[in-house]
Design a protein that fits this description.
Blueprint (H helix, E strand, L loop, with lengths): L6 E5 L8 H14 L4 E5 L5 H5 L11 H4 L10 E2 L5 E4 L8 H6 L7 H12 L4 E5 L6 H9 L2 E7 L4 H17 L8 E9 L4 H14 L3 E7 L2 H5 L7 H4 L4 H19 L1
Parallel strand pairs: 1-5, 1-6, 2-4, 2-5, 6-7, 7-8
Antiparallel strand pairs: 3-4
Helix pairs in contact: 1-11, 5-6
């Protein structure tokens, strides 16, 4: 039987504070807990996904040198304390990558080339890339390498503006031939508060615009979810009976179903 190819999903939103890294970390943990081999690739120089799974930020541990042609990503993969969840850490040196890559040949294809041996190795079922909160070169590299983009959207009025800009960038990359298969894999609504009219209105508007690309699962606003990263644990391992853990677990099931249908 032929092996199911490794999927690469970029988790991205050019706006900060929308639950992007929270979604990358917790989705990765829940999918790993469901039995799949997951690699979380922290491509954000802030390295919050790295600390969010309890891995120390160490100088030279990121993908920075590999993206400039020195070494292999396979050498950067670290185990985490959580079964079937591995990590390519980040650290502050990635800040220089936007400038360095801009001067390099094939500057939008560096992540694609670096990830290919990992895809070919068959070690992982899914690679989730936590992108920087911008549409700079690192994020565009992730888009070119990805099979799809997962967009976390906060339940607030500016959410739709972000999606239209994201769509424009994806269309440009597709039309330029950088990644002809590039699409929004799915949109997840974060920081939902069912008690407020605003949250419900925004979810309604996004569903009207994007239809079934929006996941059914809504991620609630939660103190426990905000606390978990300071303990270096995804919510599933910090407070497994919380509403947030349940929400990310259900979202993981939706994501796996969508991946399997592609």
């Amino acid at each position: 039987m032929s092996r199911v190819p490794t999927k690469v999903i970029a988790v991205a939103n050019q706006k900060g504070g929308v639950g992007k890294t929270t979604t990358a970390v917790n989705l990765a943990a829940c999918i790993a807990a469901a039995g799949r081999r997951v690699l979380l690739f922290d491509l954000d120089p802030q390295a919050n996904a790295t600390s969010g799974v309890g891995v120390e930020k160490i100088e030279g541990a990121s993908a920075y040198r590999v993206l400039l042609g020195d070494g292999a990503l396979l050498e950067k993969v670290k185990a985490t304390a959580f079964e079937r969840l591995s990590l390519i850490p980040s650290e502050v040196d990635l800040c220089g990558a936007d400038v360095e890559l801009a001067r390099s040949e094939n500057h939008l294809g560096r992540v694609t080339a670096a990830l290919q041996p990992l895809r070919d190795s068959g070690q992982f079922d899914l690679i989730l890339v936590d992108c920087p909160p911008s549409l700079g070169i690192l994020t565009l590299n992730a888009f070119v390498a990805a099979d799809g983009v997962l967009v976390p959207l906060q339940c607030e009025y500016y959410a739709l503006e972000g999606i239209s800009m994201m769509n424009r960038v994806l269309t440009q990359l597709r039309d330029a031939g950088a990644n002809p298969r590039l699409e929004i894999f799915g949109v997840v609504m974060t920081m939902f508060d069912g008690r407020t009219k605003l949250s419900n209105e925004v979810v309604g508007e996004v569903r009207k615009l994007l239809g079934n690309r929006v996941f059914e699962t809504l991620i609630p606003r939660s103190t426990k979810l905000a606390e978990a990263p300071s303990f270096g644990k995804p919510i599933l391992h910090y407070d497994k009976y919380s509403a947030s853990a349940a929400a990310y677990d259900v979202l993981a099931q939706e994501v796996m179903t969508r991946l399997d249908s592609q």
